[in-house]
Design a protein that fits this description.
Elements: H1 7-32, H2 44-52, H3 58-90, H4 104-118, H5 123-151, H6 161-170, H7 172-182, H8 190-194, H9 196-199, H10 201-229, H11 237-240
């Protein structure tokens, strides 16, 4: 039921992932967009206010409409992302036993309900609670990925952008369709800008470059190394990344 990826295909996808993270998140958001703060605040409406300064008439109205559309898109993303994130995480219990599959939706609802009940205590409380949890989470991902990369260090060749270029040149239409899945690795990056007022530009940049990006890259490359050594793991490379 699953295709067996070759090493070249794995390197191509990993190269695409790495350079998408680098260009879209590291350069676009973290390096450039975070500079566009409105009195320390970020987000679509803050960007709209910056763009509309000193502009009157129809052009200002167009900017306001575009800002409202952007805010609507952000609200839509904010609605679907928690559900997708929580459910995709809990679907891993099906790798232990399919008997647990019916519990995915009820458990997801329970987690989301608990999150919404405690978020009223404010950003500071949420940060103190989830900061250590997220730090542990990313470090575990990084360590699991590093373990697999050490087993198959050749996977680091995917850092070369020529693998991404060759992958696109070989199958441009398939790559275009694949980007619909790869973009999931970038979803949520806009929150770096939207939450700038809560955490500040310096802290966001340090967290991304020192913790989040290295751990994510190791995790993705670890999954690639796993697929090269065991193609059957394509069923769910993320959960097979951990030792059984």
């Amino acid at each position: 039921a699953y295709g067996q990826p070759g090493a070249e295909q794995v390197y191509g996808v990993l190269s695409l992932l790495f350079w998408l993270l680098t260009l879209v998140v590291s350069i676009k958001y973290v390096t450039v967009v975070l500079r566009l703060d409105n009195k320390g605040e970020g987000g679509t409406l803050a960007l709209m206010e910056l763009a509309a300064r000193g502009i009157q008439g129809p052009r200002r109205q167009i900017i306001v409409v575009l800002g409202l559309i952007g805010a609507a898109l952000f609200y839509g993303d904010s609605i679907i992302t928690p559900a997708i994130s929580v459910m995709s995480a809990l679907e891993g219990i099906g790798m232990v036993s399919h008997v647990l599959d019916p519990w995915v939706v009820p458990l997801s609802l329970g987690v989301l309900l608990a999150l919404f009940l405690i978020q009223s205590h404010g950003t500071g409380t949420m940060g103190k609670l989830f900061g250590p949890i997220m730090l542990t989470w990313f470090l575990v991902l990084g360590c699991l990925g590093l373990w697999r990369v050490i087993e198959h260090p050749q996977v680091l060749m995917a850092l070369d952008p020529r693998w991404a270029v060759a992958f696109i040149a070989e199958a441009p239409w398939q790559t275009f369709l694949l980007l619909g899945a790869l973009v999931l690795a970038l979803t949520g990056a806009e929150a770096l800008y939207a939450d700038m007022g809560h955490f500040g530009r310096p802290l966001i940049r340090k967290a991304w470059f020192m913790i989040v990006m290295p751990c994510l890259v190791l995790c993705y490359f670890g999954q690639g190394a796993l697929l090269i050594s065991d193609p059957s793991a394509i069923r769910n490379p993320f959960f097979f990344l951990a030792p059984t």
